[in-house]
Every structure is written in C-alpha cells, then in structure tokens.
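Q: What would this chain look like folded?
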Amino acid sequence: MVLSVKNLRKSYVSPDGENQRVVDVPNFSINSAEQIALQGESGSGKTTFLNLIAGILQADEGEIWIDESEMTSLTEAERDGLRAEKIGYVFQTFNLLQGFSALENVLLGMSFGIGADRNYAEKLLERVGLADRKNYKPRQLSVGQQQRVAVARALANRPKIVLADEPTGNLDRKRAFEALDLIREICAENGTALLLVSHDQEILSKFEKVENLANINRVESLI
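A: My prediction, written as structure tokens:
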C-alpha cells in the first residue's frame, strides 16, 4: 500500500471567527500502481485533501502514510524531503518557473529528490513529445505543452504516487484527453500510483475506479 489515510482532519477559522472543518476523512488508501479518480465539486475540500497528502499543509489530526513514512509526524523540512522523494504533483495551473527552460524546470524538480539527472530529464521530455522544445521557456510554449512539462516534472523523481489536482482544467478537450492519457500511461509504465481529482464527468469516465469525495470526506460542502 503506497498511501494510507486514517482519521485525517483539517480546519480553518472562518472570517466570522468560527472553526470550519474542511477535511474529515476516516479512511482512504491506494495500492502501488493503482489509479483512482476522486469526483470533487467546488467546496468539497479536494485541493486541501491533496495538499495534506503531499505535506504542503499540516494536518490537525490523523495519519498519512506514504509508503512506510508517516507524514503528519514530520517537521516541515522532513515533509518537503518526503514529498520530493516519493510524491509527484500535477497542478491545474502548472506552477512552472517562468525564468527557466522546460529542461531546467524538470532538472530543478529532480534536485530536491534523486538529484539532477540530465539524461533522464531529457528522456522524460522526449516521452511527453517535447524533445525539440526542451530549451523553450514556459511563455514560449502552448498551454498544452506547458502541462506536458508539468507532467514530466511530476514524474522526474520516479515517485511512488502522483497527485493530480484538476490537471486538465485549463486545457481544451483534445489536449485534456491527451494530457490524461499521458499521465496514466507513464504512471502505469513506472508502477506509480495515481490519485486524480476532477469534477469533469468525461475525464472521470476514463477511470475504472471512481470515488466521490463527498462520500469520503465527512464535512458539508463549503458552498
């Protein structure tokens, strides 16, 4: 089992001073190489849930096991290290560094984990169809090409699990399905687990296993 979540809770203080529970997940798990889509509408806590798993946010309560490491007991620096080593994250907004080339963006992601491996980084960019664009900066790439760089970066450290937060939300339909196929194919090739969150029914229909986040997260919608 590559991910195991137990009694995970996260709350925020609302503008009126009330404590607002955003995440309350009693149990959730993913096995190695398994691919799961979470159906999450706006206000369902999907991004917070993924950010807790990734160690970007600190949980109030509960356990998050990534491989054999328990995320919530770690310091911020230790969470950063675990994320770099075992987690790939594909963001809807890509989060590429604009001053760096496609290759440099992938290499920089590697530097926090396994260490920069130019040969593997170039192979990944070739795999995502950007071998001839490796020296292009994000602003010189199309939206679809930027997302492919983001996919390569997320997989650069050969992670145990990839988290994808609405990764096709900024793409047209054709590019959306191309990006989804790419993420799923490379994860399958590497035996990497995939947890993808989306509200798009066409995207969700591509997965054999779809969970409704509202059934997992025991809080009322924030909307």
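The chain has a mean pLDDT of 91.
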